[in-house]
């Protein structure tokens, strides 16, 4: 029987979450519609030690609440029901913020005001939990792009014991993991098939805060396998808003931002284990500082990709990994260009995006010139402008179509003093790293 | 001379045979070496065997040579090398290990040498030389146990390297050259020492007596040096492929073996891309006029490629097409005055200063553009940046990269230009940056964007054969196709169905006149093969290929849907399948056809904004499939004719947002995405590409259920064309499907299902002779089968009445239509044809009868099924 349009439903229900033999089952429903079951499989899951059971239950509960965003957004009903008991105030606050900001772009694209809809019921407060004595080692999520590979190299240099973790079955990410030389942990995730049926019935669709979901999955994994740190690779620029809409800042990568990192880290310490760290190694750095670090190591040139259009597929040719048309391709190309020998960069992409007139508009958007910054995880406008300016000073780049046009048209409208690369490469002191990893960040400065 | 004449066995000539790493790494391979050497020896020749190091050993030695302070790494790799040779020693069943131990001890001493810390060049050379010293030592011992007395010959004793002007210290030790000229005294002296020798590739000595290394391609070069020194009768390079081919066989399986090349052509082919032989090894043998042969160790029965002085009286022909990737072009625009004196000198001095060697040059009054081959240096250092900064002092610099240089090689290239018209047409829509015709008249090179170069070489190779610019049929130059030599893993193609039904077909032709005959069993077999693939969810047969009722009934019975492009096709299809299996994919159809298709319940594909802009009510609230044109962004699709702005099919990707907006306004749901790549594609990788692109695109839509990647599944026409590998296709599709399980996968093949199932039978009317041309005419032509005229399609033609007679006459097979293009086949070797003979034109089941006409008021061939 075809499913009814979830937009007509009146409540979204968090039904239950359970775990057995390496598989977590997260159950949701719209009104009294069919149960939507998401399955997450943790490979070779060990028997859970008794002392970690409470922590595990908390992490699983959070995963249930966070992963619900994929389903909730299909209908955005007016009521949210959490069936296995009310949330404490801190938890409700975390979710309130995540659903509101993490779905900000979704709301903007669908012309919705979520402030009227998102209310997580809560009652009471939570007692902080003790430390669990988790082993001192790190789970490093790998996304296939440059950032996590920079983190891996930094951790390796620092002698940190680390495991490369990824969710889903991307062959490209798997190939990157092989290149890291680290042990790998591949967690699989299967959405409830009914979600596709709901899509056919007219469900709302759009961007969701996937980094938050992956973070919650890794929190469960950290307790299950025994890691005291989850080390993401989000940088400083992830915190800046893409645009303002109806008096509300919309940030495409909100769940990669500093605010979310801090609140999730605090929640994990108070609700799961006082010694569980959730942090981002690249937080003090700008995108440009990260690309400069990436340039040091060429082992990933032939396997990595930051492109969101082609990223699921691994092919031998650059065009299989980089579509060459999307904001991510534009930005990564531009941000790497000042730091890589030109032939190496062109070898990675298989073509020269900066010598292609049809790509002008894409680069304009990155520089926030006549366009707003794209809804993608790309650096700040001033970083793009500084990178472009640096190229315009380099004879091997300055005759390329996009760079030459920047010199002729864009540059005269810019303040030269704001175009220097060096200040943008300076790290900030802001990060949430545990002492063991703090030294790596200190070395940036 | 005297000594030579008086030496025992003085008249025995020398043969130099060279074996690479894989050929010296197992005992059976050494048995092969022994057999080859013994054969020559039995023919009264003296044999010098030149060997490489065991597979992988040179890389390990390189690791030691470059490890510098990393003592642990050196020690670990040293242990690996030791183990490998101990294992080889055991495998060969040798007992006396004294000599081997000498070299292993030397390895230990060198890896602990204090010079390792600074990676001193003379030390590095000594380290790198060990691989061949070890392998030749093992070889000598083994051949002697087999009863072939072989002598160990120290290559450094005879090859004296000479430093080149401007050579770096690195070059003098690790990329040395040896000037060689025949030295008959040496030949005589060696003849006095024995009859079979084993020496080391890759090394020589310098004037100071130190060991030096020859650099890349070193062992082949060593063999060439020895061949020249000894004025050998022949140098044989034994490798794992039968020789040089007319293109890289990995990308062009139909590439032909080159049986015979002159030195210059071989040099050119090796320089422009062929990997089988290093270009450095040709000069020594050319100077000494020693023939060099490339042969396959696994297939000694093949004669290989023989390289020698130019062939007498061969017609000019393109010999090979090759490509080099990763080319960087530097375009320099003079900023000084017109005819600025010394501009080129200024520019070139800067390249020299940065140690960059220029390959191609093209110049104009105020511009010069040069190419740089890819090098480690260029990719991993700032040399290009520094060069550009220096050049900017005297000109405006533009760096154009990455480029691919495609080169046609053949002696007398300029005289071949008229034949290249249709070949050069393949560059249509590609960005050509530079064209260079070499001053020695051996090559024509065209430099294009690398992103656009995929698939170019196979296309050019086919076009060269079609244009007879590459005279593949000339046995003096060309041997068999690579796929014929090496594709024996694949089952030999089954004989076509019509061979077994010859009598029946002859009878039909006599009764019916010109007719198409379709074999339904073949159609069924093809349909089942496709349905057996795992990845596709649904198949739609494109009935424009063949819409005969019995064919449609048969395909419908196999469970395929039908893909229609007109209302009339839709109406015919509806007689055989229900509406859930109807797919309507028209192009520029009138409004009422869409309305009729919706009324019939067919799935409808749109590929334009116009219907939504102007006929919105027809589409309101409907589900549709959107056909897009992926061509514009991806160069290698441009040349397939259904992509790019020059093609009338598909919605341009830059109109997607507008389409979305229109669709939203009409409450229209886009439930499928479709693109069609082109036709006759035999490379399974193409569909992977279009599938991946469509699936990535589909994520931008909310309600996509199916991805239709079109058809174009090729059917091999010529002998030597490898058939489409369905298993490989399925594997590619499954890979993408795993990444995007939420979308159904649809395909819509046409020709693939029916081409081979159909033949056209025609009777000979007249024969004619005009000059050197022989014509055979038949009673139907382009009015029945227009593909040869329209697409230059190649169909096999046989004289069915005389199948068993030898094919003696070269015919142009023509029809009766008053049109000079009414040719069914050119240059076909057939038995002498007689009035009334039945000719069979094969693979005519697709786009034959459906494209037939009554031109000249001649009724086209009738159709029947068997």
TrEMBL record, chain A:
GO terms under cellular component: cytoplasm
Similarity comment text for this entry: Belongs to the MurL family.
Species per Swiss-Prot/TrEMBL record: Tahibacter aquaticus
EC category: isomerase
Cited function: Cell wall formation. Catalyzes epimerization of the terminal L-glutamate in UDP-N-acetyl-alpha-D-muramoyl-L-alanyl-L-glutamate.
Origin organism lineage: Bacteria, Pseudomonadati, Pseudomonadota, Gammaproteobacteria, Lysobacterales
One BP term from GO: peptidoglycan biosynthetic process
Descriptive protein name: UDP-N-acetyl-alpha-D-muramoyl-L-alanyl-L-glutamate epimerase
UniProt-recorded Gene Ontology molecular function terms: racemase and epimerase activity, acting on amino acids and derivatives
Record-listed E.C. numbers: 5.1.1.23
Pfam families: MurL_epimerase_C, MurL_N
Residue span(s) of domain MurL C-terminal: 303-415
Pathway in which the depicted protein is active: Cell wall biogenesis; peptidoglycan biosynthesis
Domain spans labelled MurL N-terminal: 5-281
Catalytic reaction(s) noted: UDP-N-acetyl-alpha-D-muramoyl-L-alanyl-L-glutamate + ATP + H2O = UDP-N-acetyl-alpha-D-muramoyl-L-alanyl-D-glutamate + AMP + diphosphate + H(+)
Keywords of this entry: Cell cycle, Cell division, Cell shape, Cell wall biogenesis/degradation, Isomerase, Peptidoglycan synthesis
From TrEMBL, chain B:
Chain positions with N6-(pyridoxal phosphate)lysine modification: 544
Keyword entries, A-Z: Amino-acid biosynthesis, ATP-binding, Decarboxylase, Kinase, Lyase, Nucleotide-binding, Pyridoxal phosphate, Transferase
Gene3D superfamilies: 3.30.70.260, Acetylglutamate kinase-like (3.40.1160.10), Alanine racemase (3.20.20.10), Lyase, Ornithine Decarboxylase, Chain A, domain 1 (2.40.37.10)
Enzyme class, first EC level, given as a word: lyase
Keyword Calcium: no
EC number: 4.1.1.20
Annotated PROSITE patterns: ACT, ASPARTOKINASE, ODR_DC_2_1, ODR_DC_2_2
Protein name according to UniProt: Diaminopimelate decarboxylase
Highest classification ranks of the organism: Bacteria, Pseudomonadati, Pseudomonadota, Gammaproteobacteria, Lysobacterales
């Amino acid at each position: 029987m075809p499913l009814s349009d979830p937009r007509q439903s009146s409540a979204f229900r968090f039904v239950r979450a359970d775990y057995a033999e390496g598989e977590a089952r997260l159950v949701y429903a719209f009104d009294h519609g069919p149960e939507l079951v998401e399955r997450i499989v943790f490979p070779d899951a060990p028997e859970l030690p008794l002392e970690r059971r409470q922590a595990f239950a908390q992490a699983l509960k959070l995963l249930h609440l966070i992963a619900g965003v994929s389903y909730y957004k299909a209908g955005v009903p007016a009521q949210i029901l959490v069936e296995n008991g009310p949330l404490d105030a801190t938890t409700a606050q975390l979710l309130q913020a995540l659903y509101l900001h993490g779905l900000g772009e979704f709301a903007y694209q669908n012309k919705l005001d979520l402030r009227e809809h998102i209310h997580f019921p809560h009652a009471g407060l939570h007692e902080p939990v003790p430390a669990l004595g988790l082993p001192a080692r790190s789970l490093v999520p790998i996304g296939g792009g440059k950032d996590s590979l920079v983190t891996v190299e930094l951790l390796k240099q620092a002698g940190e014991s680390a495991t490369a973790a990824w969710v889903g079955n991307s062959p490209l990410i798997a190939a990157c993991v092989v290149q890291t030389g680290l042990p790998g942990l591949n967690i699989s995730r299967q959405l409830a098939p009914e979600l596709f049926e709901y899509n056919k019935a007219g469900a709302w669709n759009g961007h969701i805060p996937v980094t938050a979901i992956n973070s919650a999955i890794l929190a469960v994994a950290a307790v299950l396998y025994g890691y005291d740190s989850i080390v993401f690779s989000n940088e400083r620029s992830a915190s800046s808003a893409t645009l303002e809409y109806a008096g509300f800042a919309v940030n495409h990568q909100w769940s990669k931002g500093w605010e979310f990192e801090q609140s999730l880290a605090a929640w994990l310490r108070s609700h799961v284990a006082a010694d569980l760290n959730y942090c981002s190694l690249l937080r003090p750095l700008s995108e440009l500082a990260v690309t400069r670090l990436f340039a040091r190591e060429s082992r990933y040139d032939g396997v990595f990709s930051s492109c969101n259009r082609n990223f699921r597929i691994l092919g031998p040719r650059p065009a299989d990994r980089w579509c060459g048309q999307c904001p991510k391709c534009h930005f990564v190309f531009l941000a790497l260009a000042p730091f890589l020998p030109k032939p190496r960069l062109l070898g990675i992409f298989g073509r020269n995006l900066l010598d292609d007139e049809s790509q002008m508009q894409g680069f304009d958007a990155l520089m926030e010139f006549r366009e707003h910054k794209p809804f993608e995880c790309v650096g700040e406008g001033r970083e793009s402008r500084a990178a472009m300016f640096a190229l315009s000073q380099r004879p091997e780049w300055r005759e390329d179509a996009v760079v030459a046009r920047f010199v002729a048209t864009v540059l005269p409208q810019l303040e030269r003093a704001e175009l220097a690369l060096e200040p943008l490469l300076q790290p900030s002191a802001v990060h949430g790293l545990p002492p063991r990893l703090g030294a790596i960040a200190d070395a940036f400065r | 001379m005297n000594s030579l004449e008086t030496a025992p066995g003085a008249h025995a000539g020398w043969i130099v045979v060279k074996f690479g790493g894989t050929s010296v790494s197992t005992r059976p391979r050494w048995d092969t070496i022994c057999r080859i050497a013994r054969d020559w020896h039995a023919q009264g020749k003296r044999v010098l065997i030149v060997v490489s190091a065991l597979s992988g050993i040179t890389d390990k030695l390189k690791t030691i040579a470059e490890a510098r302070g990393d003592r642990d790494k050196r020690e670990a790799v040293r242990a690996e090398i030791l183990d490998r040779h101990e294992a080889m020693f055991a495998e060969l069943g040798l007992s006396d290990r004294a000599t081997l131990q000498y070299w292993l001890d030397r390895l230990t001493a060198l890896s602990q040498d204090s010079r390792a810390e600074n990676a001193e060049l003379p030390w590095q050379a000594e380290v790198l030389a060990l691989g061949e010293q070890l392998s030749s030592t093992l070889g000598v011992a083994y051949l002697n146990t087999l009863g072939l007395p072989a002598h160990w010959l120290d290559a450094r004793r005879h090859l004296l390297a000479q430093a080149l002007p401007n050579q770096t210290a690195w070059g003098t030790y690790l990329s040395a050259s040896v000037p060689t000229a025949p030295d008959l005294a040496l030949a005589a002296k060696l003849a006095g020492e024995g009859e079979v020798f084993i020496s080391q590739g890759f090394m020589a000595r310098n004037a100071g007596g130190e060991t030096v290394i020859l650099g890349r391609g070193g062992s082949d070069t060593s063999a060439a040096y020895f061949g020249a020194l000894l004025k050998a009768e022949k140098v044989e390079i034994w490798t794992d492929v039968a020789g040089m081919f007319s293109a890289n066989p990995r990308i062009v399986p139909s590439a032909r073996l080159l049986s015979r090349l002159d030195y210059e052509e071989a040099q050119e082919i090796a320089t422009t891309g062929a990997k089988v032989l290093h270009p450095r090894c040709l000069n020594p043998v050319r100077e000494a006029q020693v023939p060099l042969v490339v042969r396959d160790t696994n297939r000694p029965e093949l004669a290989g490629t023989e390289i020698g002085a130019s062939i007498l009286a061969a017609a000019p022909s393109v010999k090979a097409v090759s490509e080099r990737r990763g080319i960087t072009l530097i375009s320099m625009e003079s900023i000084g005055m017109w005819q600025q004196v010394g501009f080129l000198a200024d520019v070139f001095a800067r390249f020299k200063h940065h140690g960059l060697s220029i390959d191609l040059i093209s110049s104009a009054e105020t511009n010069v553009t040069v190419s740089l081959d890819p090098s480690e240096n260029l990719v991993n250092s700032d040399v290009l940046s520094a060069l550009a900064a220096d050049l900017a002092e005297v000109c405006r610099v533009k760096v154009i990269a990455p480029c691919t240089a495609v080169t046609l090689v053949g002696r007398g290239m300029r005289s071949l230009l008229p034949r290249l018209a249709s070949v050069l047409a393949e560059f249509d829509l590609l960005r050509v940056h530079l064209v260079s015709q070499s001053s020695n008249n051996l090559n024509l090179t065209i430099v294009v964007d690398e992103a656009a170069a995929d698939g170019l070489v196979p296309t050019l190779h086919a076009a060269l054969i079609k244009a007879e610019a590459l005279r593949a049929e000339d046995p003096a130059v060309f041997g068999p196709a690579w796929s014929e030599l090496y594709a024996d893993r694949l089952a030999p193609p089954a004989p076509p169905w019509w061979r077994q039904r010859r009598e029946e077909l002859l009878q039909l032709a006599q009764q019916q006149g010109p007719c198409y005959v379709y074999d339904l069993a073949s159609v069924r077999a093809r349909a089942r093969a496709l349905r057996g693939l795992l990845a596709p969810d649904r198949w739609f047969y494109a009935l424009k290929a063949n819409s005969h009722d019995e064919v449609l009934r048969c395909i419908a019975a196999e469970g395929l849907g039908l893909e229609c492009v007109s209302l009339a096709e839709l109406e015919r299809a509806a007689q055989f399948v229900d509406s859930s299996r109807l797919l309507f994919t028209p192009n520029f159809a009138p409004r009422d056809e869409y309305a009729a298709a919706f009324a019939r319940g067919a799935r409808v594909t749109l590929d334009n904004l116009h219907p939504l802009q102007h006929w919105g009510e027809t589409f309101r609230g409907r589900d549709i499939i959107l056909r897009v044109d992926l061509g514009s962004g991806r160069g290698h699709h441009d040349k397939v004719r259904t992509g790019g702005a020059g093609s009338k099919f598909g919605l341009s990707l830059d109109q997607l947002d507008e389409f979305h907006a229109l669709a939203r306004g009409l409450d229209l749901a886009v439930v499928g995405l479709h693109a069609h790549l082109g036709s006759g594609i035999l490379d399974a990788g193409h569909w992977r590409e279009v599938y991946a692109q469509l699936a990535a695109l589909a994520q931008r839509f909310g309600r996509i259920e199916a991805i239709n990647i079109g058809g174009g599944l090729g059917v091999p026409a010529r002998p030597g064309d490898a058939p489409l590998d369905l298993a490989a296709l399925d594997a590619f599709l499954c890979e993408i499907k795993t990444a995007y399980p939420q979308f159904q996968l649809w395909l819509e093949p046409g020709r693939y299902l029916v081409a081979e199932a159909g033949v056209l039978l025609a009777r000979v009317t007249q024969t004619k002779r005009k000059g050197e041309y022989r014509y055979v005419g038949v009673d139907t032509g382009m009015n029945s089968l227009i593909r040869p005229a329209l697409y230059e399609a190649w169909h096999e033609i046989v004289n069915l009445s005389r199948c068993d007679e030898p094919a003696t006459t070269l015919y142009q097979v023509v029809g009766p239509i008053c049109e000079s293009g009414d040719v069914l086949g050119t240059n076909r070797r057939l038995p002498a044809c007689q009035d009334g003979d039945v000719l069979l034109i094969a693979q005519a089941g697709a786009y034959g009868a459906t494209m037939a006409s009554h031109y000249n008021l001649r009724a086209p061939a009738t159709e029947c099924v068997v």
